[in-house]
């Protein structure tokens, strides 16, 4: 029988003093080093993240288990029963951007597993994302079902292709393009290109802040910058070259992190550079976005999906109004609708996903008025609107962008409109490429 969970759950913010306990919990769950260097032990836990935890002793005391703890006072001192990190990320939203809480390192101590702490921690994470003004939360999971119950929805499947190098070696030179080595001096130009060329995407991390330190990534990472005749930065390719050996199968001898360019010629010129390894390497591995333009430029039909399973990307809307307002309205799209989001997956008040929202697209912006479901619409204009009903899964899917109400219905999610014009407007506001995330965390 699982022990009853204390109410409220004693979740607290972890600080430097908890670094060793958190490391032990995390290394026990995910592997890795248990010990901390003196610098790690003294460093603040907080830059760029919020770390939450539950003390084992608090759980034991709250559930009465400490009474039977014997001479050690119940055990659990200096041990965490559960912990999780919320990484402070920014994500691209079809030309806008929003903060997103990236959930990492969620673990429950083996002594406390099976008691329901996992679900309670996920709810605490959602509440913290809300308290910290993050309209979304994102995580990677191989087993999405346990997160799905808390409103997270699969939005993307990270993909890598295995590409025969001989195909790239045949690409003809592209006039008017030259390549430069990427050094510490040129790295800011590459980062600016990433930000610019992925700004219209949905879900792609904005590579800023402590999780993406400036300078060269190191560890064998290399890149070339592509420059046009007029000196404009046009794109780049980045990769890691590995010696053949165990673990370098499926193109891992040349692992290409990304190939980004402004147009097809840019992508061709960059693929041609990668083709120059064809004398040494048979295949490369290329990480791609869901609808990556490079897919349309790859010559030959022999590229195949890498076979290894990768965790799925899940998103959860935390604050519906802020998630909508973070995205620009496409030029020429205007109108209004009422959106009702239902969220039975977390206790009421955990976050701001649920509610009734009057959504107005005007002048390239989305304005949102959150309302109690019983309140009348604010104006005659809004009175005449159609209403769209979403469950939290459909809301998480659609507000991340690049999907339609029909897509949500095909997945068996609730996405209903009483007026087709309201459905068409919402689809138009949330259009764009299907979500992608290249960075893992
Ligand atoms: C996964 C983990 C966090 C679950 O913690 P827990 O407190 O024991 O889980 P709970 O008791 O709250 O169970 C939550 C639900 O998830 C299910 N579940 C737990 N572990 C699971 C697993 N490894 N695979 C599939 N389902 C699992 C439980 O059966 C339960 O479902 P139910 O409500 O239908 O009974 C814990 O086992 C752990 O820390 N594992 C190692 C680290 C890890 O895998 N973290 C998650 C990374 S995505």
TrEMBL record:
Keywords: Transferase
InterPro entries linked to this entry: Acetyltransf_17 (IPR041380), Acetyltransferase_Eis (IPR051554), Acyl_CoA_acyltransferase (IPR016181), GNAT_dom (IPR000182), SCP2_sterol-bd_dom_sf (IPR036527)
MF-aspect GO terms: aminoglycoside N-acetyltransferase activity
GO BP: any one term: aminoglycoside antibiotic catabolic process
Record carries keyword Transferase: yes
Keyword field contains Transferase: yes
Domain N-acetyltransferase: 9-175
PROSITE patterns, sorted: GNAT
Entries under PANTHER family matching the protein: N-ACETYLTRANSFERASE EIS
The name this protein goes by in its record: Putative acetyltransferase
